[in-house]
Amino acid sequence: MDLEVLRRAPLFATLDDDVFSALIKELNEVDLSRGSSVFHEGDQGDQLYFIISGKIKLGRTTPDGRENLLAVLGPGEIFGEMALFNPAPRTATATAVSETRLAGLRHESLRNVITTNPEVSVQLLQALAKRLTRTNESLADLVFSDVPGRVAKALLDLADRFGRPAPDGVLVAHELTQEELAQLVGASRETVNKALAEFVQRGWLRLEARAVVILDIQRIRQRSR
Ligand code: CMP
Question: Any idea where the Cyclic nucleotide-binding domain is (predicted)?
Fold first, then answer.
């Protein structure tokens, strides 16, 4: 297991070496291929997960089968922690969008660490506060922004977390299909395709398989406002 990713994760960065080493022994490794889920909305769960490599989408399905993505998470991020604070079934389905390696930790084990290392709970609260801020922003965008604006914003957010420099811009290997991108911005695939095509036609983007290259980040930023 690549322990470096975990050691650098904000949740663990402040732990003493011996506490970290003890915690590592309690982790269980989970490998997922694209499309496999680690748990489903409504399941009972007593573990949280750290992403070691790859990407996880968190999605909810309506009773009539439509899907909405809450988030796409990458290395160093955690999910599945909500039941630790609010014992209830899983609030979303967690599915790999690429080959993904996770480290699972039982809620009970984390609770023990928190008792002796209160800084860990501060880090968890910080992660939850950030998530709430992001969710509030998405809600405002759903009300106030048009679909191209939301697509531009989603691409910037993905670029912030997964972007790498490319010769002509920023390569964002988001691993999402256009359907999944549409589920992330809360619009139909057709409308999202149209927005992407318009960005391409203006020279702001290049589309690749499950990736984009942002050629003009300034324009994309302006369009996201
Ligand atoms: P849990 O409810 O145990 O399982 C689903 C997980 O999805 C949940 O814990 C959180 O870790 C994560 N999750 C739920 N809502 C959001 C959100 N809005 N943004 C990011 N992650 C979320």
Answer: 11-131
